[in-house]
Amino acid sequence: MILVVVAALLVPAVVILIWNYAYKKRGVLGFLRKYPDAELRGAVDGQYVKVTGVVTCGSIPLETSFQRVPRCVYVSSELYEYRGCGGKPANAKHRFFSWGCRHSEKYVADFYISDFQSGLRALVKAGYGAKVAPFVKPTVVVDVTKDNKELSPNFLRWLSDRSLSSDDRVMRLKEGYIKEGSTVSVMGVVQRHENVLMIVPPAEPVSTGCRWPCCLVPTYIEGLILMCEESQNADVIPV
């Protein structure tokens, strides 16, 4: 009888844990999408806000490392390797028959956002070591398979610049970026300094809260949140 009671308590708990592990990212994205946009004109100093608008570069625009896409405010490059039965692991946690990240680099700079609701322009303090949580879906720009192992000179140069060997590996290079003119949602704290309107990272992590209808427990997100769901091949708004 005791075993039945213990099992009745443990099984739902295990199911909820597995569910949260599998749907954690989807739950976070749902929370971010549903979070209401604030109007910057009425926002007070220290208020946590979500602002959606078009971005423009600050004093230091970025460029993607492989495709050389210019005038970006956020760039990322991630090299993944597939590990078969006896292959080398890409990292310490790389399991057999799965993709593992061998190399990752992400950069973000200060930029401006023009709020759709109020038309105001704010400086987003995302660079210089600020804590940032980007939600930008990368795309595969290089795909090295078993049937296609011919490496381009550009990819070989990219590997060489980072002291990465090519060997006989199955690899994928993914790049993500937010280009000037893209529509972006930013979540952070309003700060005014000498008539300059800024959005800065919050001092404390932001909680998604319990989402009981979805059986999701709270997730905590640290730093300034950047979310861009535009296709990276889509046209951007001229600025």
From TrEMBL:
Which keywords accompany this UniProt record? Membrane, Transmembrane, Transmembrane helix
- Source superkingdom: Eukaryota
The cross-references to InterPro entries, in alphabetical order and at most eight, read: At1g16860-like
Its transmembrane ranges are 6-23
Q: What is this protein called?
A: Membrane protein
Taxonomic lineage from the root: Eukaryota, Viridiplantae, Streptophyta, Embryophyta, Tracheophyta
